[in-house]
Amino acid sequence: MSAPACVRSLIQDCGLPRLEARMLLEHVLQRPRAWLLAHDTDALADTVVAQFGALVRRRQAGEPMAYLVGHREFMGHRFAVRPGVLIPRPDTELLVETALAHIRTHGESGRSCHVLDMGCGSGAIAISLALAGGMHARVTALDISTAALAIATENAATLGADVRFLASDWFAGLPEHETFDLIVSNPPYIAQDDPHLGEGDLRFEPRRALTDGADGLADIGRLARGAPARLNAGGALWIEHGWTQAQAVRECLRRAGFTRVASLHDLAGIERISGGYL
Ligand SMILES: C[S@@+](CC[C@H](N)C(=O)[O-])C[C@H]1O[C@@H](n2cnc3c(N)ncnc32)[C@H](O)[C@@H]1O
Asked: How far is the CA of 184 from the centre of ligand 1 (A)?
């Protein structure tokens, strides 16, 4: 008779990288790493072994870890994620940091900054801004996806963030005449024929979150053209984009009437976001 399965044997024998195996087991057991270490050789219940085995098979079929464990860290907060919503990426923290700098500068005038996050997904950007911006930020977030809005609303409640969520096809569903001091967006910017859409985590994420169904610049163009009518004087628009798109996005922004147009590099040295001011 073989020895009963324990934490150590499951992690060692499942065929996944150690870190992934440990995260899946923490999720099944709903116990932290310290517990796993302290109960390394305790026999585990058959139900635990079965649940772990099912998750391992899904991971081996390529499902993203974040969907399997149901969450992903972003800006130091834990965001719930499920299929139907984009998994927040560390790259996007540059957009949040840049927006926070704008909110702080705006706050020096003594007024709170009215912020709009377009295409909020899990709410990662909007909620991080509301939490870090505090009383200096009034945050609205919109998305066309009801699944995304449901998760974003849930995340805001769990994290205690005051964000107003709207269902809207870009600017179409915004209240008439409402204007903002800052608009941010991480829109779908992958071209529809990009082979990366068929690789890795992207295969499992919602297509409408990834591609604009065109050349990757269609939604970015819509945002750039629509933003001036929704921004107060001195307001800013900052957009995340792909690593080859910075020059094209800067041109879009200039054509739309923005000044002081610039791109900022992420930690990998890639031009990751571009923005401008009215
Ligand atoms: C790249 S994801 C970004 C999600 C989130 N902001 C983040 O950074 O993790 C783009 C988001 O834009 C939304 N979106 C796509 N088309 C839209 C449209 N026409 N109007 C509003 N939102 C849209 C998608 O549903 C998706 O949530």
From this structure: 11
